[in-house]
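Appendix B, example 12.
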Amino acid sequence: MARKTVLKPDKNGNYCREIGYLYGQNGKQPRFNFGKNQDEAEKRQDRLLKLMSDIEVITDGKPIWSEFGLYAARLLAKGETRIPYCPQESELEDCVDTIEAVSRYVCLIREIQDIYPSLTIVASHPEMYEDGVFVNKYIVRQEVEKLQEVLQEENYLSATQRLPERIIRGTLYEAMDQYISKLKSRAVQQGRKPKPWDAKKVEIFERLKSHQSDIQLMNLDFDVVNDWIAYWRNSPMSKRGQPMAKATKKGHLSELREFLRWMDRSKVNEWKLPEGFSDLKWTPFENTNEPDAKKVKRFTIDQLVLLNKYATPKERLILLFGINCGFCPAEMGSLRLSHIYLRQPHPEAELVEWEASTDSFIRIRRPKTNIYGEYLLFEQTTKVF
């Protein structure tokens, strides 16, 4: 396996390196010139090493350049990031007509892209590729119509259901289960301990799933997505039997949008965002029966005094965190001793023009939004510490 090395300039100031071996030439290695700029040369070397990893997959671990791989490698060494693919005459010679040729051309490009996933393959003949895409869509649609007829005969689909643009294997529930697994393992993949909001995201998404019926992914088109969004923009009922608050709906819509974008990017299935997705409206509607902020019941000063009087030290600290800093459980759970400064000068006193030297305060980033904040502590909060 070829490894990254620190590049050094040759006598002409060029950063060069030999990578891989030429097929059938007794161990001869091709030499690649990455140019005279060291930073750019390092980037080009990285791209070549990723391409060599693709090569080793198809050669059982042997770093031997294929004809197309070597062609692409030389372009990468020159700084090209988009690799044009030009078919060989032998690859198209058995096509009976132009229609079959352009269709085959598209298939060849997709096959090459699958073999070399680290590359960005582009058509050397854009017009030919465009014609081929049109032909392929037509062929796929013909196959979908045939499949539709079979499914209708077996009573799998309604006769009035619109035909999908293309066949996509799998169901919505299967994709949602994969996304839930991704959410549950995200902390481990990022090399950190699970946080309260990790579990909260899973809870929100499982609720999204419970409010949505399962369908085939190939039927998840613009209209279905739009209806799904509209459902959460309105006032779905909570588990308490009350319409969800606007903030709650906003959180669910945010998670739904992230899921759809994940499906579009993911290699797990071939589903793509429908045309017009960027025009969809995501802002939740106001609830007509949502209580006015001025009418929400709040603790009185006397009630807070009573709670503080009979609270345990830990409960009193939690109470003061809420009153003093507006902390919820997520902020309290992520607080560390390094965030707390008791009776000492502010570390950035000159910058923020803070003259007091005996104040106490907390400096922390919000766990979910990563927004930085500083909180001057009451004397009561400082004494509890």
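The chain is about 50% helix and 10% strand. The first strand starts at residue 16 and ends at 18.
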